């Protein structure tokens, strides 16, 4: 039997099979590990992407709701119509004051709540865009508060202009968040 071993080892097919078996086994093992990891990560990534999509959509909806509720012209028209319906005479100073009070009363609670999920889900370019949006809401709240204080002063028109400029910038910030979220969600990562 021992004498047959050297004959078998001289057969090139047997030698090739003997040498390649450990390499093939190792290659199959490594490929299986990567395939298994990919099979695990695929569903996990899909679930994570869905959570991100939901967080971004909720935050974006809160931003749009706030933007619509805080448009100066709409709030001022509503204030004027309410005064007329109540039988009050037009009073520009009082109308400005009430419009700014209405703007300030639109709370950012929904934005702050939904932004927390965006901050958790990330990634950093999305959280940066969300931080910019939250900062803009804070600036609009401050501008409305400043408008209440200056509604009866000669600086009232400057306060209105300042608020409207900030509100216009807020629209830009919303669109930037939307673009960053779309870009991330549509990426292959």
Jot down its keywords:
single chain, 189 residues, mainly alpha, de novo design (two linked rop proteins), 7 helices, 0% strand, rod-shaped
Question: What's this, in brief?
Answer:
This protein is mainly alpha-helical and 189 residues long. Helices cover 86% and strands 0% of the residues. The chain is built from seven helices and no strands.
Instruction: Extract low-pLDDT stretches.
Output: none
Name the structural class: mainly alpha
Helix % is over 70%
Mean pLDDT over all positions? 85
User: With helices defined by DSSP (H or I, 4 residues minimum), what is the helix count?
Assistant: 7
General description of the model:
The chain is an all-alpha fold. It contains seven helices and no strands. Helix 2 (12-69) runs antiparallel to helix 5 (109-121), helix 3 crosses helix 4 and helix 4 (92-105) runs antiparallel to helix 6. The radius of gyration is 32 Å and the shape is rod-shaped. The two termini are 59 Å apart. The model has no long low-confidence stretch (mean pLDDT 85).
Would you spell out the secondary-structure blueprint of this structure?
Blueprint: H1 4-10, H2 12-69, H3 72-85, H4 92-105, H5 109-121, H6 124-150, H7 156-185
Helix pairs in contact: 2-5, 2-7, 3-4, 4-6, 5-6, 6-7
């Amino acid at each position: 039997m021992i004498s047959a071993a050297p004959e078998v080892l001289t057969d090139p097919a047997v030698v090739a099979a003997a040498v390649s078996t450990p390499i093939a086994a190792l290659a199959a093992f490594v490929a299986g590990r990567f395939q298994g990891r990919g099979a695990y990560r695929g569903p996990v990534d899909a679930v994570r992407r869905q959570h991100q999509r939901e967080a971004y959509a909720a935050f974006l909806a809160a931003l749009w709701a706030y933007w619509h509720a805080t448009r100066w012209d709409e709030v001022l028209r509503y204030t004027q119509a309410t005064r007329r319906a109540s039988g009050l005479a037009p009073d520009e100073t009082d109308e400005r004051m009430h419009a700014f009070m209405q703007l300030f009363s639109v709370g950012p609670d929904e934005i702050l709540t939904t932004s927390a999920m965006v901050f958790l889900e990330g990634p950093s370019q999305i959280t940066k865009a969300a931080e910019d949006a939250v900062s803009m809401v804070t600036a609009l709240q401050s501008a409305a508060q400043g408008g209440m204080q200056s509604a009866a002063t000669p600086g009232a028109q400057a306060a209105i202009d300042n608020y409207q400029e900030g509100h216009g910038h807020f629209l830009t910030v919303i669109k930037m968040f939307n673009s960053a979220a779309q870009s991330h969600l549509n990426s292959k990562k």
